[in-house]
Amino acid sequence: MDVLDQQKAVRKAATGRMCLLFGGGFLLFTAITSTLLYGINFLVIASKAAAGTKEYVEILEKTNMQVPFLRLVGILFVIMAVVEVFAGISSVRYSNRVDKATTMIRIALVLLVVEALMEVFLCFSKLMSLGMLFTAIGIPLFILWGAWGFRKLSKEDPKRVYAVDMKKRQQARRQAAAQPAAPKKSLRERAMMQADYTQDTSEEIQPEGEKEPQADAVHTSEGIQSDGEAKQEVHDAAEADKTKQGEE
After folding, report:
1. What pTM was computed for the model?
2. Which of the listed residues 4, 18, 184, 203 has the most CB atoms within 10 Å of its CB?
3. How far apart are CA 37 and CA 77, in angstroms?
4. What pLDDT, on a 0 to 100 scale, did the predictor assign at position 197?
5. How far apart, in Å, are the Cα atoms of 68 and each of 54, 75, 81, 121, 169?
6. H or E segment and range at residue 88
7. C-alpha angle 47/49/52, rounded to 5°?
8. How far is C-alpha 106 from the geometric centre of its chain's CA atoms?
9. DSSP line for 157-179
10. Cα 78 from chain centroid?
11. Bridge partner list, 224
């Protein structure tokens, strides 16, 4: 397997793992907070209406529904929640298992069919709108996409078991944690390093044509200084001769 094939395999593994993990988690969330609550509400309404509670009896009369029908709908929602919980747990559990791709494809297909039938039934019974059908089949399709990518990956590499080798990641993290951390520099040291870096950078950026005149200027100033010193020595010698002649 060349480098390009390895990159494709890594991309498929990461995509499939993400689809199964997030799809399964979101499916569990919706199963508990939406599907199961719908079923419980329908069962509660049916039981209250059967008990003769006036408020719930009026609700059934306005919606032209019977108590057995509401109980049936409530039971279907509870069954649907159980199926979604099972599919969500399986999706999260096998989110890193390439060898379980076929199993996840079957679970996703069963979930897709059950969701579609349930939404069609609710649409014809006027309990849900047809637009909810696309929302209901979205998560199963997302999980199916990830499982299908795992299946392709397993065909390319039949010996592969895991999508991502978590042991290697854990070992790399442990090694990184075991290494001693670099000592933190103080604010003064960092400022001095920044100043040295800035000075070195400015010297490197300065062109050679600007450096030569500076050197010439230094030599010129040194020559002027040496001439002045020589003249001063001659002047001092002349003054000494005049003083000596005066004394004589």
Report:
1. 0.65
2. 18
3. 8
4. 57
5. 17, 11, 20, 16, 55
6. helix 67-93
7. 110
8. 29
9. -TT--BSS-HHHHHHHHHHHHHS
10. 34
11. none
